Amino acid sequence: MEETTLAGFLSGFATAFFALHAYQLFRRNNASRLQLVLACIFVQWALFNLKDFLLTLHGYDNVNAQNIITLIDGLSLIGYTCLLYELITSNGWASWRKVGIMILGYLPFFIVYNLYPKNIVVYSYIICLFIAGTIIFLLWLRRASIYVRYIRANFSNIDGIDISWLRVVAWFFITCQLLWVFTVVVRSPWTDSLYYLLSIVLWQITLEYVLHQQPVSIEPQDAIEETEAQAINREYVFAQTLPTLIEEEQLYLNPTLSIKDLATHIGTNRTYLSDYFVHSLNTTFYDYINGLRIERKSVPLMKQHTDYTLERIASESGFQSISTFRRAFLKQKGVTPSKYRKTIINH
User: Fold this and answer.
1) Is the pLDDT of residue 18 over 90?
2) Residue 230 CB: number of other CB atoms within 10 A?
3) What is d(CA 46, CA 138) in angstroms, rounded to the nearest whole number?
4) pLDDT-based confidence at 261, cuts 50/70/90?
5) If DSSP codes are grouped into helix, strand and coil, which group holds residue 158?
6) Inter-axis angle of helices 119-154 and 107-115, to 10 degrees?
7) 15, 49 in Cβ contact below 8 A?
8) How far is residue 62 CA from its own chain's centroid?
9) DSSP secondary-structure letter at 251?
10) Which residue has the higher pLDDT, 99 or 7?
């Protein structure tokens, strides 16, 4: 009885949690599309938890009701899908039309269970959800890799547009989904309680990142008319002057420098310039500029001003955040900036 009461309390708390955050997101001034998508997902989760709360008022013994709830809870995959693809699409992926199309894929299971209310239908449903979720995630990974390549090829600072934080969210998501499957099999208030807690943690972390996530306008590549032979033997007229220009004018110290800005500055094509970094220098615009920031500014500052904080060094080197500075420094030097500075001081 106590565990049922705990599960009821947590489902009620989760209902309030999601409803409150959905309300705040909808009321937010200048809310982004991504934030509005998350608000709709929170409404979905608030309704899911509300039905669980109402169920606890009548006990956990009705197997048929539990199976129907399992079928309904599977709809959460729609919310996950909308969030993932909205993150990596500049013109907006999530729409009510796409949601409607995805719901149509669930209808056969609801119809079959209504005609044949057996556990085998529910287990088949879970297996299909697992397969569908895997396919959706693999397709997303492919598109996400394109997105990551784009931002690293076009921006020198990716704070607020990077999606590396999804790795943390992904582990919580996988844990929650495995626990959800376990609750379907075991049907215990204790596992339900743990699921409510983990789902709250999962979406709280997601909310914190989404609130700081900035939309990216992915521009189409500039057209470059050339034959295949010309593409292979392409010559970059700015190859000799570009490095000198960047260093003499210290363009790398501009924290918002983009490849579009640089292309305009030297009077060339953005795609042409990006191609130069990738195929001629074997790097990305992001890594090239951050490498200059570290070698030309960060390291000299560490040697000349041992009293400077890492935050100050990062800021004066053109980095917008200490976290980006640490990641770039570790990739460039193979050690963290704090360890690198210790070696300087000890010598």
Assistant:
1) yes
2) 11
3) 28
4) very high
5) coil
6) 170
7) yes
8) 39
9) G
10) 99
| Nearest-angstrom CA–CA distance, 340 and 39 | 44
Q: How confident is the model at residue 171 (pLDDT cuts 50, 70, 90)?
A: confident
Identify the CA nearest to 122 among candidates 63, 50, 58: 63
Instruction: Give me the pLDDT at residue 336, please.
Output: 92
Structure tokens at 115: 């005609």
Q: How far apart are CA 131 and CA 47, in angstroms?
A: 25
**pLDDT band at residue 224 using 50, 70 and 90 as cut-offs:** low
DSSP string, 157-223: --TTT--TTHHHHHHHHHHHHHHHHHHHHH--HHHHHHHHHHHHHHHHHHHHHHHHPPP---PPPPP
Q: How far apart are CA 145 and CA 164, in angstroms?
A: 11
Number of Cα atoms under 13 Å in the Cβ half of residue 333: 21
Half-sphere CA count of 135, side-chain side, radius 13 A: 6
Amino acid in position 93 = W
Q: Which residues of 248-287 are buried (b: 16+ CB within 10 A; e: fewer)?
A: eeebbbebebbbeebbeeeebebbbbbbbbeeeeeebbbb
In the structure, what pLDDT confidence band is assigned to residue 1 with cuts at 50, 70 and 90?
A: low
Gap between the Cα atoms of 138 and 130, Å rounded: 12
148: nearest Cα among 134, 136, 165, 135: 165
Tokens of 257: 């420098």
Please report the pLDDT score of residue 59 as a whole number: 59
State the Cα–Cα distance between residues 169 and 178, nearest whole angstrom: 14
Closest CA relative to residue 291, chosen from 323, 261, 259, 317: 317
- Encode burial over 301-326: b for 16+ CB neighbours within 10 A, e otherwise: bbeeeeeeebeebbbebbbbbbebbb
Backbone angles phi, psi at 155, to 5 degrees: -130, 145
∠ at Cα 92 (74, 148), nearest 5°? Answer: 90
Asked whether the beta carbons of 106 and 161 are under 8 A apart, the reply is no
pLDDT of residue 194: 87
- Give the Cα-Cα-Cα angle 172, 177, 182 (nearest 5 degrees): 125
Comparing CA positions, the residue from 301, 283, 294, 286 lying closest to residue 336 is: 294
The residue count of the chain comes to 347
